[in-house]
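[agent] plan:
  1. take the single chain provided in the ticket
  2. run structure prediction with default settings
  3. attach structure tokens to the ticket
  4. add a short note for the reviewer (M.T.)
[agent] executing step 1
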Amino acid sequence: MKQTILGAGGAIGTELAKSLSNYTKDIRLVSRNPKKVNPTDELFSADLSIKEQVEKAIQGSEIVYLTVGFDYNTKLWQKLWVPLVKNVIDACQKHHCKLVFFDNVYAIGGDNVKHITEESPISPTSKKGEVRAEVDKLILNAIEKNKINAIIARAPDFFSEFKDRSLLMNLVYDNLAKEKKPNGSVMQRLSIQLDMPLIWRKEQLFWATPQTPTIKFGIYQQTHKKSLVSNG
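[agent] step 2 finished; step 3 output follows
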């Protein structure tokens, strides 16, 4: 059955399309101006802010993946996220589609963010977090009421050639590539989100976990300029 990606073309949507091609060739990519990732991809142009277009975009799908990413702007999030997710939930209920929502960790705040599990409470501590919390609750309530079958997948950031909305790529990787020290405040934030300390020492970036106290995450090497070599 068809697998449909809403918000195709971004970092998550593109990598997801690549991975799904190992399991099926029946993949539909949906965005305003979708482009093929795999030769057999079906392209569907849609404005996901319009309810009717969302319904048409997912019709005939077994699983719908919501991978949309809006610009990093609080007012924009407050305006766009809730209507989008309501449209997607309603469309999935109408067409009996399973939903996978790729979310971040903004809805979980305070001490709860130090170690996130499936049981971590929704506890936002920022305006953006409040938006994501409202969105998550819409999906969780729809699941509880048996309207849809869905899951929420969380990740604090991503590492790929797509850098437009990644703090890790923009303020850590890019600085490493320019032989600069990574942004300290971002390093601290990522340490909290990843639940592990990130350490910058002698032009090397380390992470530490209880199982592996000093694993080299990446080394900026003079012989491989503008590259970050993953060792862990």
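[agent] step 4 note for reviewer: The first strand starts at residue 2 and ends at 6.
[agent] ticket updated
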